[in-house]
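Q: I'm building a small set of examples for a reading group on sequence design. Run inverse folding on the following structure and report the sequence directly after it, with nothing in between.
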């Protein structure tokens, strides 16, 4: 079972910043910005491409949760990052979004 599935099942205790029947959000354990939140589906999908192909409702809820969290945290700007595959930097093979904010970001990203 992957670490995000362990978090979703409650096996690894985590404080959730957003929680619904299909989606969870929590602080990243290795933050890359003052605000760094991971937003995941409760169900296991290897990446967001796989999730989007079979469950557009949950895919939409991931982005809705990001918007809701950014608003509630008072972010005047934020970045949503999705890494799909090892060459893009995906290190946990469970679909997720990174919500980053609280500082200026450069372009192009790393």
């Amino acid at each position: 079972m992957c670490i995000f599935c362990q978090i979703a099942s409650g096996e690894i205790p985590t404080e959730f910043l957003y929680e619904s029947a299909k989606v969870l959000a929590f602080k990243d354990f290795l933050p890359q910005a003052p605000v760094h939140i991971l937003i995941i589906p409760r169900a296991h999908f290897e990446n967001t491409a796989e999730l989007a192909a079979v469950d557009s409702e949950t895919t939409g809820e991931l982005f809705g949760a990001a918007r809701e969290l950014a608003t509630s945290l008072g972010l005047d700007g934020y970045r949503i990052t999705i890494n799909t595959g090892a060459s893009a930097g995906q290190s946990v093979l469970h679909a997720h979004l990174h919500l980053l904010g609280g500082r200026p970001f450069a372009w192009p990203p790393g």
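The first strand starts at residue 18 and ends at 19.
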